[in-house]
Amino acid sequence: MRVLVPFSIRLEPVSKKNPHEFVEDITEFSVVEMVEKIITPTSETEIIRDQDMILQEEGNRIGEEEDHSGRDDFASRRFTEIHIQQTAMAPKLYENVYSTATLRVIATLHEKCIEFEFVPMSFGPELKKEPYLSLNPFGQVPADVDGDLKLFESRVLTKHIAFEHHGKGTELLYHDLKKMAPVSVWMEVEAHQYDLVASKLVFEQGVKPFIMKMKPDSMVVEENQKKLGQILDMYEARLSKLKYLGGDEFTLADLHHMPTLQYLQGTSTKEVFEARPHVSAWVKDILARPAWIKALELQKQAETEYS
Ligand SMILES: N[C@@H](CCC(=O)N[C@@H](CS)C(=O)NCC(=O)O)C(=O)O
């Protein structure tokens, strides 16, 4: 997929009195060169000039009676507007819509209103061999190719997208260090405390019965539900004072939880969340976000395609 970025510049004649001076400078080569100076194309960027739109006459025609050696059209323009479309390859996300790590990134893209090209990957051997391993040496989804950058680890991708598209869609991170500090703390809590336990429960209660057609290990479930309860006590204390984990606004600290939260709402672990009123309200609030609903639609779409 290519993203077209409309771009236009206006070239004024070097001398208004003598438009021919300007005309002499405008060769096809110098126009492109000039534009390249302004937009600095990368290896993934090219400049397309739409021939029909390139030289649009504006202003008065002058000097029509003069002989311009076959370049009358050029010479008779006081100034010229050039329309350029800068094309850049859309970033690619190698994904699997059933993967919690992938859903984390897709939710971020929707929150930021960013277009990515999705490259669906199966959980089969294609993940464990080249060319995929050069994108993610651990042979897991997601991975992202954005220009010259190749990235993996879902939480790195979400941060990269949120920083790169600062000012677009939901502001998921703060640029103010003081405001950002608690967001960073709770992003770390998610990754190093909550997710260790939540992922085990997703595996036992989601992956095992529905994908592997195996029975969950009830001892592992019980042990991890207990650990989750202890972690959520700290969430309850935090969320009784603030609407979101990072402060008064929704940020990546909340978003990173969404995929595992979603899977666990369909299991007996739901009760562990529901036993804590502020946690329960927070879960309902963030899972109802339009960006998340849109991310889940991709899953439904995939289900229809596979069935
Ligand atoms: N820490 C990684 C975890 C990635 C991960 O575990 N991906 C899983 C799906 S959620 C995967 O690709 N599993 C297939 C496999 O390991 O073969 C991240 O956040 O990106």
Automatic annotation (TrEMBL):
<dbReference type="GO" id="GO:0043295">
    <property type="term" value="F:glutathione binding"/>
</dbReference>
<feature type="domain" description="GST N-terminal">
    <location>
        <begin position="89"/>
        <end position="169"/>
    </location>
</feature>
<dbReference type="InterPro" id="IPR036249">
    <property type="entry name" value="Thioredoxin-like_sf"/>
</dbReference>
<dbReference type="InterPro" id="IPR010987">
    <property type="entry name" value="Glutathione-S-Trfase_C-like"/>
</dbReference>
<dbReference type="GO" id="GO:0004364">
    <property type="term" value="F:glutathione transferase activity"/>
</dbReference>
<dbReference type="InterPro" id="IPR004045">
    <property type="entry name" value="Glutathione_S-Trfase_N"/>
</dbReference>
<dbReference type="InterPro" id="IPR040079">
    <property type="entry name" value="Glutathione_S-Trfase"/>
</dbReference>
<dbReference type="Pfam" id="PF00043">
    <property type="entry name" value="GST_C"/>
</dbReference>
<dbReference type="GO" id="GO:0006749">
    <property type="term" value="P:glutathione metabolic process"/>
</dbReference>
<protein>
    <recommendedName>
        <fullName>glutathione transferase</fullName>
        <ecNumber>2.5.1.18</ecNumber>
    </recommendedName>
</protein>
<dbReference type="InterPro" id="IPR034347">
    <property type="entry name" value="GST_Phi_C"/>
</dbReference>
<keyword id="KW-0808">Transferase</keyword>
<dbReference type="GO" id="GO:0005737">
    <property type="term" value="C:cytoplasm"/>
</dbReference>
<dbReference type="InterPro" id="IPR036282">
    <property type="entry name" value="Glutathione-S-Trfase_C_sf"/>
</dbReference>
<dbReference type="GO" id="GO:0009636">
    <property type="term" value="P:response to toxic substance"/>
</dbReference>
<feature type="domain" description="GST C-terminal">
    <location>
        <begin position="176"/>
        <end position="306"/>
    </location>
</feature>
<dbReference type="InterPro" id="IPR004046">
    <property type="entry name" value="GST_C"/>
</dbReference>
<dbReference type="Pfam" id="PF02798">
    <property type="entry name" value="GST_N"/>
</dbReference>
<comment type="similarity">
    <text>Belongs to the GST superfamily. Phi family.</text>
</comment>
